[in-house]
Amino acid sequence: MNKEVSLKVKSKFLNKLKSGYPLISKEAIINVNDLVKEGSIVKLVDERNSFIAKGYYGKQNKGLGWVLSRNESVSFDQRFFENKLKEAIKARESFYQSSETTAFRVFNGEGDGIGGLTIDYFAGYYLLTWYSKGIYHFRDYIIQALEELVEFKGIYQKKRFDEKGQYIEEDDFVAGERGQFPLIVKENGVNFAIYLNESAMVGVFLDQRDVRRTIRDAYAKGKTVLNTFSYTGAFSVFAALGGATKTTSVDLANRSRSKTMEQFRVNEIDAETQGIIVEDVFNYFKYALKKQLKFDMVILDPPSFARSKKFTFSAEKDYKNLLKEAIAITEDNGTIVASTNCSAFGMDRFKTFIDTAFKESGGRYKIMEEFSLPADFKTIKEFPEGNYLKVVFIKKIK
Ligand code: SAH
User: From start to end of 220-304, where are the E strands?
Assistant: First the structure.
């Protein structure tokens, strides 16, 4: 076992950490250089060496590690992790009981008490995602705890951290039996093809579940839908099943075409009747404007940061302009679904982007509904940036 390291907290950060903030940020610590080995247990103390909290050292771009307990005598053994997992699993009871939805988040990092780890459920299979070498250090305890608590077909993992500066692609299979991929899971009765054995992304982002259902049930009928940054086309599938007259999915990545066709196919939708375009979204906006194409619904779900051949996009700097491009090709009384997973700003600032974009476009709008993370993506009030998702349904008014 690594030895425990005492970390002195700067006075400016004491109150925040004392009142439940779980992230150990670099700026908050005086003796950062005492951290050597990821996975070490760290003890946060004030200038007088009084105990504040304990956790582990694990480097992520957000910070140096996470607080796991405010009890000095607790040890981070298998029982500790088992208790955390048990509580999280119990909180998802209603999800386990649903036959309409068989994919959901079982454990959501700091929201469930262990920053740096998420666990997702996909129709009998579990996927653990490790966000640092530090949390991966505890893998045996955590995997064993999971094995003892749930029935499963198989367990897979993703390591979302660099080892010696390189992402090591290795076999992600952990325990149980190997799956047959694609694995077909259900979300509110809709099928998704999932791959637990390929790259970092499995085929669907579970945090948009409520947004997809809303598009299908309340907005899509009889509408033309443009889905930008569409990835595997999950929003398009729900729109098509909700009765959209046509969906058009646009994504830069080559793989998005076959991935989107597959998601249509597993739902018995003829992909030939839908538009799938592999192109830079910003080029497509120009094309649509020139051809005077307009849509009843435009979905915007860009990454927080992306670089393509011609453009760099940062949600914080460029979302307002992205909205202006969308406004220009949305029909009057049409809907823009503006989504972002950028944790650098909150809902209030996101709404100022929306307001400014409409003002600069000389148009009016009405906010119809808003979404943040769904219930299975548990967050805590002490760490508001953990509730990163912001989705706003905006009606464009003439
Ligand atoms: N909306 C998707 C998730 C989007 S993930 C869903 O609901 O599943 C972000 C996607 O944006 C990636 O698939 C990436 O290939 C794509 N992307 C990034 N920059 C782009 C650009 N300039 N034009 C088109 N697609 C882009």
Answer: 224-228, 246-251, 275-278, 295-300
